[in-house]
Design a protein that fits this description.
The protein contains 19 helices and 35 strands. It is an alpha+beta fold and 795 residues long. The chain is globular. Its EC number is 3.2.1.-.
Length: 795
């Protein structure tokens, strides 16, 4: 393989489509800005990665606390001081610090005369930089530091190459902060081999969300070990290690972790090592590095397999750029302004960063039971990093649409983990750890969605049986309050009570919030029911279909004097009072006003409970507008739409089912043009492993998933005159033509599907799965007659 072999699959022809237009984007990679979302709470990172890759090499910033960082995932655009370039990252997770950030490697100009761990305020062994000397591209990151050193990084899937430059005739050192993962570490180890010009080691860590107040203590635990092997093109002039505050010049091994606390409870703990170089004649240092979650041998094998011995940063960057271009060409847009193209392809770039490989090139990966495993027969790779509560609403649908083979491998990966975890499907999986973060049963919704959208390369029967058992047989963890509210251990908490009462009781649910848990489980059960129907499992389909309507048991039609709302209930049937629509009591990261709309599987039923479609639409108007009629779509008001978090992100499309699709068209366009954009603040909030970015991709295309467990899509006005969606491995593209698309023409006047008039505001799943043509006639004013037939509304 190596670089030459890495390039081989990149010449694979894209799926067949119509002849390209003159204004069609030829190389989508040219329109990606990895810095979008790196400020304002987006929590993206700008470093080098590949689609679904294991390694993500990016800066770790500092604001003067070595036990913390400037943003959840290690990089904040407005903080221009770094203490290293870490090997692993997770895109857009919201816990601060988020996850990973393993083994920061720092080019340092000066003598190492004290322990870097003792530099608890990052005053000495860190450096500032300016954005004028920073360049971020897909698969490639480089920056010049004010110290005079620079870092130029490029990666394959599991390995990377770096060029570090130093001022001539100044002390040049490279620090390996092996213990300094974002959340700390249990232990770490480093070995320096002067004869072979190598540095190897590992960090034993985990602790995702381990600092959050609402349950984080439960996650201050270890669940993975990252191994690394780094080789250099030249000899070391000096070496040394450190443990806590003790520096050992000349030493070649060190051990020690930092723990999982923060501030004074962790400061000054940890270990690492350094190597130095003579810059009198040559001030450039090349490093080749491989990583593995299985073993040192795996890290070295991954490096040999993916990067040729003499490959330069430019070689690897070119291969990475080609890899990204190939993945991004799954959607080819035409027309649109450059800012629109940049926002779109960067959103697609962020959407395709996960799931992440955790298996080596030989197929071995760390299991959730703490032992190594090998991928199943027919499985290409093992993937992880599943932010289920977020991703099941948009990102998994985009993954299934564009990369069905990856989606199938991911589904098999989650099943593998469940089998290694006593049959329990964790709702937020990081590497090989069950973190329990958030609420509901997103694995059920995710795999049901994959199957509905045509993904078949996984053990669908085994997965359904396992998820059905989880949904019907109580597990002892479901009665535990450990980790609650934010990281409750039970994946179907309080299941026996739920099945008896037909809702999760606020005073007995062992969950984040009883009302939210009921809504989440209703969505999951409805998705499982649809999957069961496709599998011919009629009995299970009927049972689960009924349970998909349990949301009704937490809808209180008299919650306030003016309107009904979703409201938490106690086990005795009483409503939890006092009730306030702006309160999050009974909910998870959202208010009752937001969660009341979280019934995507039964919008007609919700409208009926609200007094009919017209009354529901009027209420939805108030969700997106202030009393004076002005828009309220930027968040910050608990009574109205919040684009920064997931429970309500489907709400703009609900107008389609309420018989007023023109309001979906104007609302989606308002959000697209005012909440999203370019620049570091171009995302509304946490990207949540590509979820918010996937929302934007769908909105720009004029499509959105109708509900989990289904392939149908809801329609709105596209942003671009043309888009061709060519899923990997599928011959027939789905083309979307909207010749009059512009900022002033968001409204749909007519639609044609495969050349025939189409009078509904939704698209059958067969078109999504099999491809075809979709044509829009757009206008600058609403057409209040199109797609409003009460008998043909989305259901």
């Amino acid at each position: 393989m190596a670089v030459g072999a890495l390039l081989a699959p990149l010449v694979e022809a894209p799926a067949a489509s119509a002849a390209p237009r003159a204004d069609e984007v030829r190389h989508p990679v040219d329109h990606v800005d990895p810095l979008i979302g790196s400020a304002g709470g987006g929590n993206t990172y700008p470093g080098a990665n590949l689609p679904f890759g294991m390694i993500a090499w990016s800066p770790t910033s500092t604001t003067g606390d070595q036990t913390n960082t400037a943003a959840a995932n290690g990089y904040a655009y407005d903080t221009t001081r770094v203490r290293g370039f870490s090997l692993t990252h997770v895109n857009g997770a919201g816990c601060h610090p988020g996850a990973a950030g393993d083994v920061p490697i720092m080019p340092f100009v000066g003598e190492v005369d004290s322990s870097p761990t003792a530099d608890t305020k990052d005053q000495k062994y860190a450096a500032t930089f300016s954005h004028e000397k920073e360049k971020a591209e897909p698969g490639h990151y480089r920056v010049g530091l004010d110290s005079g050193a620079s870092a130029d990084l490029a990666v394959s899937e599991r390995a990377g190459v770096a060029d570090f430059s130093f001022p001539r005739d100044a002390p040049a050192r490279l620090l390996f902060r092996t213990s300094n993962s974002l959340n700390g570490s249990e232990n770490a180890h480093i070995e320096i081999d002067r004869e072979r010009h190598k540095v190897t080691g590992w960090v034993l860590t985990g602790a995702f969300c381990g600092r959050r107040a609402n349950g984080g203590e439960n996650n201050r635990k270890t669940y993975y070990r990252l191994h690394f092997s780094a080789s250099f093109d030249r000899a070391f002039s000096t070496v040394g290690t450190w443990e806590n505050d003790r520096l050992s010049p000349g030493a070649t091994t060190a051990d020690g972790g930092e723990g999982y606390l923060t501030g004074a409870d962790r400061a000054g703990r940890g270990s690492g090592g350094y190597v130095g170089f003579d810059t009198a004649r040559d001030n450039d240092v090349r490093m080749r590095l491989g990583i593995s979650y299985v073993s040192l041998a795996g890290a070295e094998s991954n490096l040999r397999a993916e990067i040729a011995p003499r490959a330069s940063v430019a070689d690897v960057a070119a291969a990475g750029r080609a890899a990204w271009d190939r993945r991004l060409r799954a959607i080819r847009i035409s027309g649109g302004s450059e800012p629109r193209r940049t926002a779109f392809y960067t959103a697609l770039y962020h959407s395709l960063q996960q799931p992440n490989l955790i298996s080596d090139t030989d197929g071995r990966y760390p299991g959730m039971d703490g032992t190594p495993h090998r991928v199943e027969r027919g499985q290409t790779a093992q993937y992880s990093n599943f932010s289920g509560w977020d991703q099941y609403r948009a990102q998994v649908q985009l993954l299934a649409l564009l990369q069905p083979e990856v989606a199938g491998d991911f589904a098999q990966s989650l099943l593998n983990f469940a089998r290694q975890n006593g049959g329990v499907w964790d709702r937020w999986v990081h590497i090989s750890g069950a973190t329990h973060v958030m609420t509901g049963d997103p694995s059920a919704a995710t795999l049901a969605t994959f199957y509905a959208m045509g993904v078949r390369n996984f053990d669908a029967k085994g997965a359904f049986d396992s998820l059905y058992r989880q949904a019907t047989v109580p597990h002892p963890d479901g009665l535990s309050d450990k980790g609650c509210p934010g990281q409750c251990e039970g994946q179907r908490p309080g299941l026996a009570q739920y099945l008896e009462s037909r809702y999760a009781a606020q005073d007995a649910c062992h969950c984040w919030g009883g009302a939210a848990e009921t809504l989440e489980d209703s969505v999951a059960d409805d998705a499982l029911a649809r999957w069961a129907r496709l599998l011919g499992r009629t009995k299970e389909a009927d049972e689960l279909g009924t349970r998909g309507g349990y949301w009704r048991n937490v809808f209180n039609p008299q919650a306030t004097g003016a309107a009904g709302y979703i409201q938490a209930r106690n086990r005795d049937g009483s409503w939890v009072t006092p009730f306030d629509p702006a309160s999050d009591r009974g909910f998870a990261q959202g208010s009752a006003a937001t969660y009341t709309w979280m019934v995507p599987q039964d919008v007609q039923g919700l409208a009926e409970a609200m007094g009919g479609r017209d009354k529901a639409a009027a209420r939805l108007d108030g969700f997106f507008h202030k009393p004076d009629g002005s828009w309220s779509v930027r968040g910050g008001d608990p009574l109205r739409y919040d684009p920064t978090n997931e429970p309500g992100i489907h709400a703009p499309w609900l107008y389609n089912a309420l018989g007023q699709p023109w309001k979906t068209q104007e609302t989606v366009r308002q959000i697209v043009t005012t909440v999203y954009g370019t620049g570091p603040k171009g995302l509304p909030g946490n990207d949540d492993l590509g979820t918010m970015s996937a929302w934007y991709v769908f909105a720009a295309l004029g499509l959105y998933p109708q509900a989990p467990g289904r392939a149908e899509a809801l329609l709105t006005g596209p942003l671009f005159p043309r888009a061709a969606i060519a899923p990997a491995g599928q011959r027939r593209a789905l083309t979307i033509d909207a010749p009059d698309a512009s900022d002033t023409r968001p409204y749909v006047r007519a639609v044609r599907v495969n050349g025939r008039p189409h009078d509904t505001s939704w698209l059958d799943g067969s078109v999504v799965r099999q491809g075809g043509s979709l044509s829009f006639d757009l206008a600058d004013r609403p057409d209040t007659g199109w797609a409003t037939d009460p008998g043909r509304l989305p259901r």
